[in-house]
Specification:
binds zinc ion; 7-stranded mixed β-sheet; alpha/beta
Length: about 300
C-alpha cells in the first residue's frame, strides 16, 4: 500500500460575536482507491500491482465517507466495514455504465438495519439502477434490502453534502452517454473526479466545463484509458489518453494527477510504462503524476 502525504492546513474561524478567531487547525482527508480499472474487471498475476476492480474511490474526512462510483471495488470497501458499526455514506455516481455500478447489487452491507447509502447521480429521466438490479437481470433488488438505499437524480450545479462536510460541484463532461465529473471540497482539500472523459480527436483542446471543475485542485483523478496508438483506433469510445490527461492536468493547474480508469488489456508492465511516459512528458510541469493502484491511500495530513 502506497501512502503519499500532503500537507494541508485549514483555517477555521467561527463567526462569534467577538469575531474571535480560533486560529489554525488541522484536518485529515484520506483518498482510497478500491478500484482503478475501467470498462470491466480483470484478474491474474499480470494485474497484481494496479489491481483489477473497477471504479471506486472513497473520500473520508472523519465525517460520513463519500464514495466515487460503485464499481467492483465495492467488495474491497465492504471488507473494511466488517468491524465497524452502522454504515452511512453518500455516493457521487459519475454515470450508469456497468463498470461504475457493477458492485452495487453485491454490496450486502445495505442489507442491515441502520445502514444507508444515498446515491447522487445524473438525472437521465429513468430509474436505471432499479431496472438493472431486479428480475430478470438480477435475482434480488438491493432496493429491497433492510437498510436504506436511495437514488437522488441531480442536475449539474452545486450540491452540499452536510453529513460529509463537503461542498460538491457536478458538471457534464464529454463521454458517450450522459456523464458527470465532480469537484469535491472537503477538509480544506479539493479533489476532482473525471473518470470517463472523451478527448477531442485532435487532443489539443479542453472542455470548459471539465477545466472549470479541475481548476487548481489538490488532486485530479482522470481517465487515462488509452495510449495514443490505441486512441487512433478508438477515438470516439469516450475516453482519453494518458498524455491527454497530463495536458489537461497542466491546463487546469492541478497539484497532483492520478491516472485512472485503466484499460483491461493493460498489464502492470503496460501501466508502469504509461506512468513513466506521463511523468516524462513535461518533467518541469510541477504536477505530481502517478497511475492509481488498487489499495493505494493518499493521506492528506499535516
Ligand atoms: Zn467507465
Ligand atoms: Zn463510461
Amino acid at each position: 500500500m502506497n501512502v503519499f502525504t500532503i500537507c494541508v492546513l485549514v483555517h477555521f474561524k467561527l463567526a462569534l460575536p467577538t469575531r474571535l478567531s480560533l486560529g489554525w487547525f488541522i484536518v485529515s482527508v484520506s483518498v482510497t482507491f478500491f478500484g482503478a480499472r475501467g470498462s470491466r474487471p480483470v484478474s491474474g498475476s499480470a494485474y497484481a500491482q494496479f489491481g483489477g476492480d473497477t471504479a471506486l474511490v472513497v473520500l473520508d474526512c472523519g465525517a460520513e465517507p463519500i464514495l466515487l462510483d460503485l464499481g467492483t471495488g465495492l467488495s474491497g470497501f465492504s471488507r473494511t466495514l466488517r468491524d465497524r458499526g452502522a454504515f452511512r455514506a453518500s455516493c457521487l455516481l459519475s454515470h450508469y455504465h456497468f463498470d461504475h455500478v457493477q458492485g452495487l447489487p453485491f454490496f450486502a452491507d445495505i442489507d442491515k438495519i441502520g445502514n444507508s447509502l444515498t446515491i447522487f447521480a445524473p438525472d437521465v429521466g429513468e430509474k436505471p439502477l432499479r431496472t438493472l438490479y431486479g428480475p430478470p437481470f438480477f435475482p434480488v433488488s438491493p432496493f429491497e434490502f433492510r437498510g436504506e438505499l436511495e437514488v437522488r437524480p441531480i442536475a449539474a450545479g452545486r450540491l452540499e453534502l452536510e453529513r460529509s462536510k463537503a461542498s460538491v460541484v457536478a458538471s457534464l463532461v464529454p463521454h458517450t452517454n450522459v456523464a458527470f465529473g465532480y469537484r469535491i471540497e472537503l477538509g480544506g482539500a479539493t479533489i476532482c473526479y473525471i473518470p470517463d472523459h472523451q478527448a477531442p480527436y485532435t487532443r489539443d483542446t479542453f472542455a470548459a466545463t471539465a477545466l472549470e471543475l479541475a481548476d487548481g485542485a489538490d488532486l485530479l483523478i482522470h481517465d487515462a484509458q488509452y495510449t495514443p496508438a490505441e486512441f487512433e483506433l478508438k477515438s470516439n469510445w469516450g475516453h482519453s489518453t494518458h498524455l491527454y490527461a497530463v495536458d489537461f492536468a497542466i491546463a487546469a493547474r492541478v497539484k497532483r494527477l492520478a491516472l485512472f480508469h485503466h484499460d483491461p488489456s493493460h498489464s502492470d508492465n503496460d501501466l508502469l510504462a504509461m506512468e513513466l511516459s506521463a511523468k516524462e512528458a513535461y518533467p518541469s510541469s510541477g504536477v505530481e503524476i502517478f497511475a492509481a493502484r488498487q489499495g493505494q491511500v493518499l493521506q492528506i495530513v499535516p
